[in-house]
Every structure is written in structure tokens, then in C-alpha cells.
Design goal:
Length: 475
């Protein structure tokens, strides 16, 4: 019996193995078939499908407070000239000019290079020029780009264009933006092409990215929440696309939805945690402080907008109505607090310097010295004590004590401010801090940064010379 069994057993193993292989192949084929059906279904839908959670665009004769509004807080109908005016406001909310303007003499003509981990994406011209802009786009083309991330020629758009958020914007508001863009001066300018590594230069691969990182569909109001909260959610999650900077990325460079608004690093700048966590986020800020920061870029004793956030304030949030700013604050307050591990709020660090100036008098400095460099380059505006000049006036030189950039757990933003300066123009003040990148070496910038964090902020937050060198190359 044993001899007979030994003859049968070797033949049985390959049979089972072949069956398992066939099962795996059949499973993969089924998955591929389902995926192909999904792609075909998605493409066949086109831009014309109407969703239950959006209102049709209607013609109206007036745009005033007496008009009914939809759940997102947008008037249900807007007339001709007022449609353009509303579109301009909504384009401000979306900060379209920031990404689509590389040269301020050519607004909305594109050409701005955006560095990503897979290469550089250059923003397109969205003026009405028929050859190099969107002058020949139909309304359906524009809707499809905003809602589905698909260009006029059917090409997949890269998510540097935040269609992941814009998909939530109602048809009505998208068409208002479209009406405004049509009134811009056509600028004949063809921006340079993208420089992406293979295979990321293959746009069709965005189909796979979208499967995991994109949910197409308009904003659905929460009936359990107030109209103010819903308006804030519509703005923050949609046109204002706050998550693009304040939410970390997954390995596919999609938004990490499990850590929404918990902070992320973009082009060297740290977009801080804006959840209500009292240490890592803005839970210890008052509603008025948050609203003031969005409207002016400064909340004395808390933070002063620099880098990309200064641009957001300059180009976008300072133009928002008080109602919309209040709605944004209301929504941000409702987010789940996420801790980043900080032991105390980043705006609660620091004490005035006591005697550094006296100590340095008559002292020969033979090496790179942070205190000496600070007094020579920074003290004129920020005072040698670090307390700033001008208190809380709109044009004040801010205190480095109780300052988010100085008390943060990493010193990126402080080093970036020293390297690249600050430019922020609002209705209240024209804020300018010169860039010291051309005046100071990497080791000098590191020395000043580390002196400031040790003396006026979080002493555990430091930068190395190599880190400064990398930050210097960021756009």
C-alpha cells in the first residue's frame, strides 16, 4: 500500500497547485473586468449628469437678501452683472489667482511651477485667450474640469489642481466663477510644459489615483447642523480647499483623511494643525482671534501669517465677508481635535532677553554667534529683548515671544522667514520683512534660528546647517 501511495502523491500536488493558480488568475481577471466596467461607466456619465444634492442654474432678476438660498448659503439665482460680481468673490475664496499667476503683470495666465515629489507641474493659462487660455472651453468643459478633474480634450488633470475639493462646489457657483473668468483680459501666453518623471507623466494613470483618493460629488448639507456650520463646511471642504495644505499626504500623495487638518509641510513651510486641540492646534484661540487672523494675517500674541499663508490672506481670506469668516471659524471649531504630541501650545513659549546686549559689549566674536547675528540683523525691528515694536498695531513689528513660528516643535517656518522674508498686503497694513537669504550664509541662518528658538521660543526646536541649505532651495 505504501508503495502504491508514493506513486499517486507526486501527481496530486501539481494538480492542486494548478487549480490554485487558475483560481488566482480568474480572481484577477474578475477584478480587472470590474475595474474596466467602472472606468467605462464613469466615462460614460459625462459632465451632464445631475445630482440630487445640487440645484439647477436658473435665471433671476435680482440678487439680494430676499432671495432664497440653497443649503450651502449661496443665492439660488443670480442675475447677469451680479453673477460676474459673485464669481469674482468666489474666485477670491478659491484663491485662483495664487496658483494661476507667475508674473503679476499677467494675472491668471498661469506659468507658476509647483514642485511635487514626482516632478514639476506648471499651472495653465485660464484667461479667455482662445489659443493659449480657456477661451474656447464650453461651460460643460469647465464644469467637468472643476468637478471631475478632466480637461477639455478628455485628459486627466493632476491633483495639484484641487478638483478633489472643487468637486463639492455647486454647478451654480462654478458657473459664476466661469462668468467672471470670461470678463478677464485675454492674455496670449503659453506656459512651459510639466516636467514629470515616468510613469507619472502618463495622465491616464490618474484613473488609478482617483480610485483611492477622489470621491466625485457635490457638497451634501448636514441637516443636523446649522446653516452657519454648513456654509463653513462648504467653504473649507470645497472652494477654500484648506485641506490641501493643512492635511498630511498618504504614500500616493493623496490626502490622509484619518488626519484631516492636523498639519503638513508644503514646500518647506509647515501648515500648522488647525483642529481644536489645545496644545497642537488652535483650541486655545478665541473665535475673534481666528477671524482676525483670517482677515488680517495677524493675531497678536498668537501668530503672524508668512509664506503661503500670507499669500492666502493677501489674495483671498481678507476679502471674505464677516459671515463667511464666521462660518469657517464655526466649522473649524467642530473638527475632531488631533494631538501632534506637543506639551504646550506653540504660542505660549518664551521670555524677553535680559542681558545679551550687555554681555556682548566689548567681546571679540571669532565664530558664528547667534546672539550677535540677531542683534545685528533683527533687533532693529524686533527689539533686542524680542518683544517687537508697535505692540498690536496693524503695522507692528511682531513680538518673537508667544509667536507660533518661534514656539513650534520644528523651526522650519522661522528659518524660511529669515531666508525668504515676509510680504503680506491687507486693507489694514502693508507688511514687509526683507529676505536675508542673499545676505546670510546657511550656518548664519541656522545660528540665528537656533538663538531665537532657545531665547524666545521652544528650546527643543532647532535646525541644522544642512536643513537650512535644503530650505533655501524651496520655492
Amino acid at each position: 500500500m505504501m508503495k502504491n501511495t508514493s506513486r499517486v502523491q507526486p501527481a496530486a500536488l501539481p494538480v492542486r497547485s494548478m487549480r490554485r493558480r487558475r483560481l488566482r488568475v480568474a480572481t484577477l481577471a474578475a477584478i480587472f473586468a470590474l475595474f474596466a466596467l467602472y472606468v467605462a461607466w464613469h466615462e460614460a456619465r459625462g459632465p451632464g449628469e445631475r445630482h440630487n444634492d445640487e440645484l439647477p442654474i436658473t435665471q433671476a432678476h435680482a440678487d439680494d437678501a430676499s432671495q432664497p438660498s440653497n443649503a450651502a448659503g449661496t443665492p439660488a439665482a443670480v442675475a447677469g452683472g451680479d453673477l460676474v460680481k459673485r464669481g469674482e468673490y468666489l474666485a477670491r475664496v478659491g484663491d485662483c489667482v495664487a496658483c494661476h499667476t507667475a508674473d503679476k503683470s499677467r494675472p491668471f495666465a498661469g506659468g507658476l511651477p509647483i514642485n511635487t515629489p514626482v516632478g514639476t507641474i506648471v499651472t495653465p493659462n485660464i484667461t479667455p485667450d482662445p489659443d493659449t487660455g480657456i477661451g474656447q472651453w464650453s461651460d460643460a468643459d469647465f464644469l467637468r474640469a472643476m468637478h471631475e478633474g478632466i480637461g477639455k480634450g478628455g485628459e486627466r488633470l493632476y491633483p495639484a489642481f484641487p478638483y478633489v475639493e472643487y468637486t463639492k462646489v455647486t454647478d451654480q457657483d462654478v458657473m459664476a466663477i466661469r462668468a467672471y473668468l470670461k470678463t478677464l483680459t485675454p492674455i496670449h501666453y503659453a506656459p512651459p510644459g510639466n516636467t514629470l518623471k515616468f510613469p507619472f507623466n502618463q495622465r491616464w494613470l490618474m484613473v488609478f489615483w482617483n480610485l483611492f483618493n477622489f470621491n466625485e460629488g457635490r457638497f451634501v448639507p448636514d441637516p443636523k447642523q446649522s446653516a452657519e456650520w454648513n456654509r463653513g463646511a462648504y467653504l473649507v471642504e470645497g472652494l477654500a480647499h484648506c485641506e490641501e495644505c493643512h492635511t498630511p499626504r498618504n504614500f500616493m500623495q493623496g490626502l490622509k483623511t484619518s488626519s484631516r487638518f492636523s498639519g503638513a509641510v508644503q514646500a518647506g513651510w509647515h501648515a500648522y494643525n488647525i483642529t481644536p486641540d489645545k496644545n497642537s492646534g488652535v483650541g486655545n484661540w478665541s473665535d475673534d482671534e481666528l477671524a482676525t487672523y483670517l482677515s488680517t494675517g495677524a493675531a497678536p500674541g498668537r501668530a503672524n501669517a508668512a509664506g503661503p499663508m500670507a499669500e492666502v490672506v493677501t489674495d483671498s481670506t481678507q476679502y471674505l465677508t464677516q459671515e463667511d469668516v464666521g462660518s469657517i471659524v464655526k466649522y473649524l471649531r467642530s473638527l475632531p481635535p488631533i494631538s501632534g504630541g506637543e506639551s504646550r501650545p506653540r504660542d505660549q513659549w518664551g521670555n524677553p532677553a535680559a542681558d545679551d546686549v550687555t554681555t556682548l559689549r566689548g567681546t571679540t566674536v571669532n565664530a558664528v554667534n547667534g546672539a550677535q547675528l540677531f542683534i545685528a540683523n533683527c533687533a532693529t525691528c524686533h527689539n533686542w529683548t524680542g518683544q517687537g515694536i508697535g505692540a498690536s498695531a496693524p503695522g507692528a513689528y511682531p513680538s518673537l515671544i508667544h509667536n507660533s513660528a518661534v514656539g513650534a516643535s520644528d523651526a522650519n517656518n522661522l528659518a524660511m522667514v529669515i531666508l525668504h522674508g515676509v510680504t503680506r498686503t491687507t486693507k489694514q497694513a502693508d507688511v514687509l520683512m526683507p529676505a536675508f537669504g542673499t545676505e546670510l550664509t546657511d550656518d548664519q541662518v541656522a545660528a540665528i534660528t537656533n538663538y531665537v528658538t532657545k531665547q524666545f521660543g521652544n528650546p527643543q526646536s532647532t535646525v541644522t546647517v544642512d536643513q537650512v541649505a535644503r530650505l533655501r532651495t524651496q520655492q
